[in-house]
Amino acid sequence: MTFSTTLQFRGFNPSDALRASIDEQVSRLVAFDSAVRWCRVVVSAERHPQRNADLYRVELHVLVPGREIHVGRTYGHDPRHEDPFTAVADAFRTARRCAETAADRRRQSPRRRRDAPKSA
Q1: Which contacts (CB < 8 Å, 24+ apart) does range 80-83 have?
Q2: pLDDT-based confidence at 113, cuts 50/70/90?
């Protein structure tokens, strides 16, 4: 099956290291759940007047069979998220938990065939 990834950055110019980190996180997610078909990553730098540094918001949109996973994090006053690498890692950690839940649901739900005879 084909897999598609879209990266978008808002409010800053990303380093090659940040792009490589995101690619690694996407690869881990696909390795974790091979049913992932599409992933969109949006990293935004949000300026806060009271702070000297930007805080980073990461949005993930992941498509797996039967479900679309949306992860969007704004980390408020957490100084760890002045680092875009930490914000990306936290968002992907949440996406992996959601993908695990979706995979568990896929395994537990009985597959119904439309042409199966109905019992009376």
Answers
A1: 81/55, 81/56, 82/51, 82/53, 82/54, 82/55, 82/56, 83/56
A2: very low
Residues 43-61 have pLDDT tens digits of 998 877 666 778 888 899 9
Cα 5 to Cα 59: distance, rounded to the nearest angstrom: 13
Domains and CATH numbers, the chain: 4-105 (3.30.160.100)
Q: What are phi and psi of 106, to 5 degrees?
A: -65, -40
pTM for this predicted structure? 0.77
- Residue 4 pLDDT > 90: no
Three-state secondary structure readout of the chain: CCCEEEEEEECCCCCHHHHHHHHHHHHHHHHHCCCCCEEEEEEEEECCCCCCCCEEEEEEEEEECCEEEEEEECCCCCHHHHCHHHHHHHHHHHHHHHHHHHHHHHHHCCCCCCCCCCCC
